[in-house]
Amino acid sequence: MVIIRKDMIYVKTKQKVDVVINSFLVIIGLMVIISAIFKYSEIKLVFIGIMFSYALLNLLQFLLTKKSNDYEGLYTFITSLIVGIAALYFEFNVNTLSICIMSWTTIMAIIKFIKTDYYNDRKDKMWKLRVITLILFIIIGFLSALCLNYSDNIKVMIIGYFFLVNGILELVDPVCKYLIGK
Predict the structure, then answer these.
(1) How far apart are CA 44 and CA 92, in angstroms?
(2) 76 contacts 58 by C-beta, under 8 angstroms
(3) Is 92 exposed, middle or buried (0-12, 13-18, 19+ CB in 10 A)?
């Protein structure tokens, strides 16, 4: 006899939603890289577009998985929205872009660390994987913010790679949980 618990079905649904939403982040990163290859270099519009897209996707993720009491999507939505709005109002140059990326990376690292600590408190073995992805996220974020002293085309490509890698790192957790849960 097979017993199917509602909470187990919901957990798998949450992981599926996470995979779909994070796949969109990878696609956004790829689109930005492709736009840089075709010489689209309006860095302010690209960055603000990414921030608002990231905010919208995380709000959607939070609303679709509200029952799991996982507030990472909500906090990410708020953070991305604030950084996107701030980028609208400041004169956009290399320093502003670097500060926006470093601020966003720092706040996101705190949000991700809170979730990692939650996994550790729940004795979930995924916390080790979350620590590794968190460290990689911080390193890539700060390296991306420091390497923005090139032409606008290269800046767009660096931002594209940053969000592509961020999307891939975000995919690691739900994919591993889904595969381990099978």
Answers:
(1) 7
(2) yes
(3) middle
In terms of Cα–Cα distance, which of 149, 142, 146, 148 is closest to 165?
142
Q: Tokens for 71, please give them.
A: 């507030």
Among residues 26, 47, 39, which one has the least CA distance to residue 151?
A: 39
Please report which helix (H) or strand (E) contains residue 70, including its range.
none
Structure tokens at 76: 């990410």
> Which residue, among 50, 83, 16, has the nearest Cα to 155 in the 3D structure?
50
pLDDT digits (tens, 9 = 90+) for 138-153: 999 999 988 888 888 8
Model's pTM, two decimal places? 0.85
Tokens of 153: 């085309």
Residue 166 makes CB contacts below 8 A (sequence gap 6+) with 25, 29, 137, 140, 141
CA 95 to chain centroid: 22
Q: Which amino acid is at 160?
A: G
- Sign of the CA dihedral 95, 96, 101, 104? positive
The Cα 134–Cα 122 span in angstroms is: 18
- Calpha distance 152→166 (Å, rounded): 21
Residue 70 token pair: 């996982």
Mean pLDDT of 30-44: 85
Question: What is the C-alpha to C-alpha distance for residues 122 and 107, in angstroms, rounded to an integer?
Answer: 23
